[in-house]
Amino acid sequence: MTDLARAELEAEQAHVDRAYTRLEELRVAAERLARQALADDPGGHGQMFLDREELIHSQERRLADLHVGDDQPLVFGRMDFDSYDSDAAGDENDSRVGPMSHHIGRIGVHDADHEPLVVDWRAPIAESFYRATAADPMGLVRRRHLICRGRRVLALDDELLDGVAAEDAGLLLVGEAALLAAVDRERTGRMSDIVATIQAEQDLIVRSQLAGVHVVQGGPGTGKTAVALHRVAYLLYTHRLQLQDHGVLVVGPSPLFLRYVERVLPSLGEEAVTMATLAGLVPPTRTTGHDTPAVARVKGSPEMATLLANAVSDRERPLSRVIGIPYGGHVLRLTPGMTRSIVDRVRRRRGTHNERRASVERSIHTTLFRIWAKRMAKAQSGHDDGEQGGGAHSSTADRLSDPAFRNEARDDMVAAIRRTPEYREVLERIWPLLTPHELLHDLFGSRALLRSATPDGLTSDDVARLHRERSASASRVRWTIEDIPLIDEAQVLVGDMPRARRQEDADGWTDFNMSQLADDLDAASEFADRELALVRDSRWDVYEEEEELTPWTRTWAHVVVDEAQELAPMAWRMLARRCPRASMTIVGDLGQASSPLAPSRWSDIDAHLPGRYDLEIRELTINYRTPADIMSLAAKVLAEVAPDLTPPRSVRPTGRGIDVVPSRPDTLASSVASIVGDAEAGTVAVIAPPSLLGSLSEALEVEADPADLLDRRVVLLSPETAKGLEFDDVVVVEPALIASGDGPGDDPTPAGMRTLYVSMTRPTQRLALVHALPLPPVLRGAR
């Protein structure tokens, strides 16, 4: 290092030290204010108490912001601007307002005179740090990257954007390419932020407007996930007032993926972001993996929304026989015709199924009271059809003309009949309270219910795929990932369950019987006796109309969806409900799509998004992760199944290369173990079809798909688990099996080839293909 370069490094170190010193001062001040606010007695005054709470909350937020920079460097760049007319300093539209030089970092830090020591990377003036080019320098003369480890400046990397201005200003150029240095670093098992190396095409997406649905198409290694997370941080910085009440939701494909990216937003100063999988957006529902592709295709299709709506309607039906309800020495009979009028009237009202049950109850009460009042009038006139009459009845009939007595008598009748099993049977038969899990449990467990609810667009084979053996209760069902959007859709239809206590009836009465419903559908003879079992255990609800409902669906101001290419129409409906403002960032890669209903183009999802907004589609074209030689081979696989997609261009010509290792079936595991043993420092992933995971786990002495794989140097993964992750070295075992979907056939399938493409694009340094079976034709001859 030359003396001049050393002097530049020392000067930058001095500035970084000054920034950290000031950061500590700000922390101490914030802590002091927080302690003072906690100690202050608001004196019981309501507004003073609220002001105190707000001050405490604001200081807690401030302290959280000021702790950024401890684990990751606080300062990572410097912008040197061309000199300009001082009159422009008052122009709010001039992005160069301020000193000729600005240091850029994770958060903004000002000195005691409020002069900036560090500019927040999300501030408008920082835009030129990411977007300036030699063709359009945006007033920038030199862009400097500070390569730091914690508080220590290790090296500098300068980019010259205006040579003449730089020479006039006497600016020195030092360093090497910061971006390539960053991507060449060994993986740690967690995604890191890219705030110091955001590139121009990435920054355009990060800073795009809040409104609308923004789709980011990006091949492997283009940083689409990191860009989406940095966009979240930028939006919260720029539009905090608009977002802070409802917040931002980030939806990932799996809990593992969320753990992989969980450190990115905190490193950027944002903690208050909800991160969840689809299953995490509904009340706790245990899932056990995926359905078969054939079943997944049916469950994800948009026709399922109509099927579920029909299924709810099938549970809103009049009685098929007369049921008498005892009260006051009489039997008040409800006929199918009476209940048909009630059901038809209530169906026309707005609201969810469970909400409208209160209307059903009121209508039943009104109908029964009219029957009873008429019975009293007949008794008074001596026409009681042989039932008990007398003075008591006459007296009651006379008093029913008094509105106050009439209301009291009605309340007494309602209180009495609601305790009878006959009333409960009526209510449960014509309008049962439902939970989404119970609805699906009943529906999928009965061919009769499925056949009745099936809409146009689904075939008898589709219905057969939906049917499954009934469990003892809905709580014991083994739900799949594909069931989650259906549970959510069912919740929208049935509504929240009242905070009512369910209890078994003292007489052991069963509220609902599958045989009755099957009879109503004229389908009982077609099904085995087990399908005529009880729908659910005995239960009764103590329903109070004024009680609050338990919450289900929360909404967010902005929703980010990762690996979006895998989502089916029903999943998009689920996400659209959580984003009423139609403000979304959707990232994915159509080339990596392997689900049965994956879109062939992004415009296909428009019909399932809120408000039918036009999509703004942008593409990331540069691969910063995968070396060009590996990407070139993987691109041949992509071309077999998606010839219209252009793979991203790699910026790194080569890593540690590609190895093709033939083997015998009996030595396959040992060959893999040998490659893993020879791997250089860094993370190593062995990606193999599920059928081989057991034998490889034993040979490598590592667990397959371990829960803590992000903390291990060597991991053994199925191709599905590997999606979205990256490693230094990757060993792909039996590419032919992966390409054929690990099934009995030898021929590659489109989904299998896409999965192979995903597996081959996980490494940042080295790729090894180990095989005993012949390689897929597209890979033969690879070296």
What report would you give on this structure?
This protein has 783 residues and is an alpha/beta fold. It has five domains: 3-176, no CATH class; 201-282 and 552-623, Rossmann fold (3-Layer(aba) Sandwich), CATH 3.40.50; 293-315 and 432-532, no CATH class; 323-430, no CATH class; 628-779, P-loop containing nucleotide triphosphate hydrolases (Rossmann fold, 3-Layer(aba) Sandwich). The protein contains 29 helices and 21 strands. The strands form five sheets. A six-stranded mixed β-sheet has the order 3-4-2-1-5-6. It has a six-stranded parallel β-sheet with strand order 9-8-12-13-7-14, covered by helices on one side. A five-stranded parallel β-sheet has the order 17-21-20-18-19. Helix 18 packs across helix 21. Mean pLDDT is 82; it is low at 84-99, 173-177, 385-390, 500-516 and 522-551.
